[in-house]
């Protein structure tokens, strides 16, 4: 007993010391969250995959703190992005899932709850959202009108500037939206969008209606759908989810998406070089449809999926170079690299990825991936880079992206967080900066349904078949192959109770979405 007390007292002293050290951390001039899409734990050379060389990420890892137990809050994109930007678990809200391309905004706007970007504004930062959005746009009874100023949009959430894709690359509308307006839109060719599967616009090219000869003539080799969800409107030689008409002058070219997002990031950094900045950069890579620019074709040994991974790494290099050229010194720049959810190889297109990635486990040494409750679904690559402040190395601290809100608030000296905001976020700044090896002791993990698992230290409680529960010891079984629930019934019962308690905290589960949005 005395030995245990001495250990706990020593741990308390270490934690107290770490908290004290955070008081003296400098306030960064630039804070960048670089958010990859569908990138697995083992998908880059920084985490061990030699078949997809990522020199910029390797440099970041060599110079930064590499986390081995960091998590997105969900194994799919919209909930993870919601949690990161609000500090609240998305699974608490009714109707929160993978949104269609014409969904209404699900994020709280100013005056409803304090978001991460709104907090950064109040702390004196110029803020920008660039890249994939997938959190809805506009509010009201009808979906957004793409032909006029769209509001609310990222601006009302807390971003001074934005250059975004409304949803995903495989969903219409296939246009960029800058500060609430579609880029290069011709008023004489208005955009119309419909997500009813059986709907058709006049003269709309729909993959589901085409013969084999027609498909071969109009689709890129990797643009053919593998399911009935992706076989609707054909744009730029790729079949999509949903129906779209008009907006021809505004349509993106998939092979140029990365370059366009890079240009927007560089422009924001250069134009605000005299300000503290907060950049939320969401790469489209490596989400489907995978259509790398020709200069990146064949640059990996994993086919088209590996090539867009290399393209994603180039985007990281572009952002870092722009920061340096704009005068943001390395010691003044905090850069966090991570991904929105676990990996998926085949996801709606016959793009050859399963063949080219044969033998490659993108989540290794973990099992599962996108859509799943297994560790591969939420355990993310996560690197904190802040030279001279955060020392290089590795950390096994258990952390979640939902914790970035309160951690960054602490870093920039913002303490006036309303009671109804950032409810699930914990201040993990000592762990993020490598001042403490202690992270969370517990963490709920969420998939695309309403299912939750619970991490408790190195144990993982997960629902099984027929209402049963499974228990895994990740310290000896990272791939979750050996269910030890029958051997640990008391631990299973206590973890079930703890998970139920977490569900009831902070307003419980199945609350309505903020304001009037309840049925996206």
What tags apply to this protein structure?
520 residues, eleven-stranded mixed sheet, globular, alpha/beta, Arylsulfatase, C-terminal domain, disordered C terminus, 19 strands, 25% helix, Alkaline Phosphatase, subunit A, single chain
What do these coordinates show?
The chain is an alpha/beta fold and 520 residues long. The protein folds into 3 domains: 27-190 and 250-444, Alkaline Phosphatase, subunit A; 192-245, no CATH class; 446-507, 2-Layer Sandwich (Arylsulfatase, C-terminal domain), CATH 3.30.1120. It is built from 13 helices and 19 strands. It has helices at residues 2-22, 55-63, 77-86, 116-122, 154-157, 212-218, 257-271, 303-325, 353-356, 375-378, 404-411, 429-432, 489-504; strands spanning 30-36, 65-71, 126-132, 161-165, 176-178, 181-182, 192-194, 234-235, 238-239, 243-245, 277-282, 333-339, 379-385, 393-395, 399-400, 442-446, 452-456, 459-463, 469-473. Strands 1, 2, 3, 4, 5, 6, 11, 12, 13, 14 and 15 form an 11-stranded mixed sheet that branches. It has a 4-stranded antiparallel sheet with strand order 16-17-18-19, covered by helices on one side. Strands 7-10 form a two-stranded antiparallel sheet. It is globular and about 60 Å long. Mean pLDDT is 94; it is low at 516-520.
């Amino acid at each position: 007993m005395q030995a245990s007390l001495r250990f706990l007292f020593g741990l308390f002293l270490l934690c107290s010391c770490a908290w004290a050290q955070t008081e003296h951390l400098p306030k960064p001039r630039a804070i960048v969250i670089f958010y990859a899409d569908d990138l697995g734990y083992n998908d880059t050379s920084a985490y061990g995959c030699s078949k997809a060389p990522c020199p910029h990420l390797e440099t970041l890892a060599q110079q930064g703190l590499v986390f081995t137990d960091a998590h997105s809050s969900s194994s799919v994109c919209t909930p993870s992005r919601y949690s990161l930007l609000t500090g609240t678990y998305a699974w608490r809200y009714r109707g929160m899932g993978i949104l269609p391309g014409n969904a209404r905004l699900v994020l709280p706007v100013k005056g409803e709850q304090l978001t991460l970007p709104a907090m950064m504004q109040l702390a004196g930062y110029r803020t920008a959202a660039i890249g994939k959005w997938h959190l809805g746009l506009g509010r009201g009874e009808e979906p957004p009108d793409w032909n006029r100023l769209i509001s609310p949009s990222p601006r009302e959430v807390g971003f001074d500037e934005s250059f975004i894709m409304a949803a995903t690359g495989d969903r219409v509308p296939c246009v960029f939206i800058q500060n609430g307006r579609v880029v290069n839109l011709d008023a004489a060719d208005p955009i119309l969008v419909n997500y009813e599967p059986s709907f058709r616009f006049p003269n709309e090219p729909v993959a589901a209606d085409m013969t084999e000869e027609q498909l071969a003539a109009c689709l890129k080799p990797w643009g053919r759908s593998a399911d009935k969800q992706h076989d609707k409107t054909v744009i730029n030689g790729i079949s999509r989810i949903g129906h779209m008409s008009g907006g021809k002058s505004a349509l993106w070219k998939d092979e140029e998406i990365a370059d366009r997002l890079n240009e927007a990031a560089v422009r924001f950094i250069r134009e605000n070089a005299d300000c503290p900045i907060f950049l939320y950069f969401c790469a489209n890579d490596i989400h489907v449809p995978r259509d790398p620019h020709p200069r990146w074709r064949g640059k990996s040994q994993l086919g088209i999926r590996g090539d867009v991974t290399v393209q994603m790494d180039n985007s990281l290099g572009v952002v870092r170079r722009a920061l340096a050229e704009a005068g943001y010194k390395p010691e003044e720049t905090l850069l966090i690299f991570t991904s929105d959810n676990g990996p998926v190889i085949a996801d709606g297109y016959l793009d050859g990825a399963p063949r080219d990635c044969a033998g490659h486990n993108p989540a290794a040494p973990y099992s599962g991936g996108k859509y799943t409750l297994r560790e591969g679904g939420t355990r993310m690559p996560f690197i904190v880079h802040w030279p001279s402040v955060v020392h290089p190395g590795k950390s096994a601290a258990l952390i979640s992206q939902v914790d970035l809100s309160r951690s960054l608030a602490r870093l920039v000296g913002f303490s006036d967080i309303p009671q109804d905001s950032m409810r699930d976020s914990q201040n993990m700044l000592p762990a993020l900066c490598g001042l403490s090896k202690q992270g969370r002791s517990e963490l709920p993990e969420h998939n695309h349904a309403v299912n939750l698992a619970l991490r408790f230290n190195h144990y993982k409680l997960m629902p099984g078949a027929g209402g049963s529960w499974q228990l895994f010891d990740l310290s000896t079984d990272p791939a979750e192959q050996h269910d030890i629930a029958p051997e640990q019934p008391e631990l299973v019962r206590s973890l079930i109770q703890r998970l139920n308690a977490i569900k009831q905290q902070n307003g419980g589960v199945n609350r309505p979405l903020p304001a009037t949005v309840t049925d996206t």
